[in-house]
Fold this sequence. Notes:
- There is one protein chain.
- With 368 residues, this protein is α+β, with helices and mostly antiparallel strands.
- The chain folds into two domains: 8-129 and 328-361, NADH Oxidase, CATH 3.40.109; 133-316, NADH Oxidase (3-Layer(aba) Sandwich).
- It has helices at residues 8-19, 66-84, 120-128, 146-157, 168-185, 189-199, 256-275, 285-292, 357-361; strands at 30-36, 39-44, 88-94, 104-115, 162-165, 216-217, 237-238, 245-251, 279-282, 308-316, 333-335, 342-343.
- The strands form three sheets. The chain has a six-stranded mixed β-sheet with strand order 3-4-2-1-11-12, covered by helices on one side.
- Strand 11 and strand 12 form a beta hairpin.
- Helix 1 (8-19) crosses helix 2 (66-84), helix 2 packs across helix 7 and helix 5 (168-185) crosses helix 8.
- It is globular and about 55 Å long.
- Mean pLDDT is 88; it is low at 356-368.
Amino acid sequence: MLSPFADDRSLYRVIRAAQQAPSVLNTQPWSFWVRADDRIELRANTGQAGDRHPSRWLTVTDPAARELAISCGAALFNLRMAIRVTGHDLVTWLLPDPDGDPALLASVEVVTGRVRRPTADEQEFYEAIPRRHTYRWPFSHRRVRANVLAALASAAAKEQGWLRVLFPFQVASWLRVTAHAESVLSHDELYLAELLRWTSGADDGFGIPEAADGPQPFAVCPPVRDFSTGWPGGRPVAKFESHTQLLSLATSGDEPLDWLRAGQALQRALLTGTRYGVAASFLTQPLELADHDNEPRRWPGAWPYREWPQMLIRVGYPARPAPATPRETFPDVVDMRSDPPRRVLPPGVPPPAPEPVSRWVLGGLPAD
């Protein structure tokens, strides 16, 4: 059976699925290097790639690259599902060379000599990928049932992520500290400049475009994040659900390996929710404020678990359809099997302005 990386069309089938993972401010901070017919690498895009686009790493909001790693972990889960539905088994190594090549986040090896049908869950996860997108509008007043929340928690646990349902008093506490963190961050000029870069006039499939943001909540402690800082005019005001449902995602440790696991746990849980008609958005300002100030991240109030907070997720049933956030037309894919390395373009898509591939592969560094 042919490898899913045998030709550009097969390759982009799995890359397109990986691209549709959620990422912080839709930065899509990943690159894919095809090393062999049976091996592909997922890499962090932390530097400027020639003249293509500024760095995908939000150095002010995310100085430790924690959210970058979580984003890449979500893309890795999609990549795994896209390979599995081709009938191939795979083996994944997380951080295979943390000292020599820290940008290399994962190496995925495809077992080309053995065919195994995907499980029903794997097939359904793959089919849910294009249907999942962040929902920033009011949810309906129908609460997510306990059995569905349990299914989300079980899904996250399979990737070593601990997803917990917050009680109403914890939700109220979290919304208060989120509003406080938003207020503090909004007075930081560097933070605002970074936010503006990725939300104001976002195009080319990057960032949060105005069309993907919802109305402004009519609330003192809003349950959604406001990305309209740089947009002219105001957004319409709407009343959001009166009883916000929040889930916390945590890990047992707080190292890059744990962040990658958190991203995979997050995506498995989100796709599980998509299968049940549940959508989600994220409230991470308090965690970002702690990272921004180089302070320990903590859950608000008393927390009975010894674990590290990574994400806070608002869930519910959509009250109306909402557009998905677009993705980059020319994802970062390099075929390292050729000499020199060849940048791979989507089949049938006209190439962008020419650029030396050596500059792009080397992250903007001059070629020797």
